[in-house]
Amino acid sequence: MANLTVTQAACHIPELWSPDTRDAVEATVVAAARVESEKYGLGELKGGPGDTMNIPYISNPTANTKSADTNITPEAIGPSGAEASQAFTVSTHQAVAFAVENITEVQSKTNLRQKYTSKAGYALAAAADTNLHTLPQSFSNIVGTLGVEPTFDNWQRASQYLDDANASEDGRFIIVRPATYYAMRKIDQFVNADYTGGGAGGSICAWPQEVQHG
Q1: Reduced to 3 states, what is the DSSP secondary structure of residue 62?
Q2: Rg, Å, the chain Cα set
Q3: Together in a domain, 124 and 32
Q4: What number of CA atoms fall less than 13 Å from residue 186's CA on the CB side?
Q5: Are residues 34 and 96 in the same domain?
Q6: Residue 206 to residues 114, 201, 214: CA-CA distances in angstroms?
Q7: Residue 162 in contact with residue 171, Cβ under 8 Å?
Q8: For residue 89, what are the β-bridge partners?
């Protein structure tokens, strides 16, 4: 009796290709989604020309006391009598480039151009997220110790720094690492209903207004 093994009959056994793909896991993009580039006109840099975007300040005028029947003296608007601006300089260039040969696109069962275009968008967003996360190193006010779980007093002091600077509370948020997020869950002031005012279990988003981690 002759045995016909799968090795001997390999030419008769077809290969099947799934119409779906196993896509690489994408990390959560947190900081990049918080940058309001279009609101401040940073999107105009994409159309050029130029490598610096200046965002002019609009200062608050001063309410001055005047005497009756006296002339009003116009004030000089802005610090030192002149408005300033915030400058954003484009100094980091990153790109994702790939090519799909025509024959590959025709013969492939997968829409490779669509798949890798989506991956390219993610790669650029992730790169922007990484770059943004390096900015806090140059902040003027730093609370706590790197690598050490922050205490409730640390969060209180950080929030006070924002209040002292008259930072708007509208949409105020913090971005933390997963380790820091779960450290916060061990602080009663964030999760205990006696502090949060919520029902059983409370909510870690009761204070500050919003917490994002990733």
Answers
A1: coil
A2: 28
A3: yes
A4: 8
A5: yes
A6: 41, 12, 19
A7: no
A8: 52
| Beta pairing partners, 42 | none
What's the total number of domains in the chain?
A: 2
What is the chain's pLDDT, residue by residue, as a tens digit (214 residues)? Answer: 668 888 888 888 888 888 788 888 888 888 877 776 666 666 666 666 777 888 888 888 888 898 999 999 888 888 777 888 888 777 778 888 888 888 888 878 788 888 888 888 889 888 888 888 888 778 888 888 877 888 889 989 988 988 898 888 887 788 888 888 888 888 888 887 777 765 544 444 444 445 665 5
Domain span at residue 108 reads: 25-56+82-138
**Residues facing 88 on adjacent strands:** 53
* Cα separations in angstroms, 13 against 18, 83, 145: 16, 76, 62
Which residues, 6 or more positions from 170, have their beta carbon under 8 angstroms from its beta carbon? none
Classify residue 87 as exposed, middle or buried by CB count within 10 Å of its CB (0-12, 13-18, 19+): exposed
What the block records as the tokens of 202 is 């409370």
Statement to judge: residues 109 and 36 lie in one domain = yes
Instruction: Give SS3 for 173.
Output: coil
Alpha-carbon distance 33 to 98, whole Å?
Answer: 25
> Could you tell me how many residues make up the chain?
214
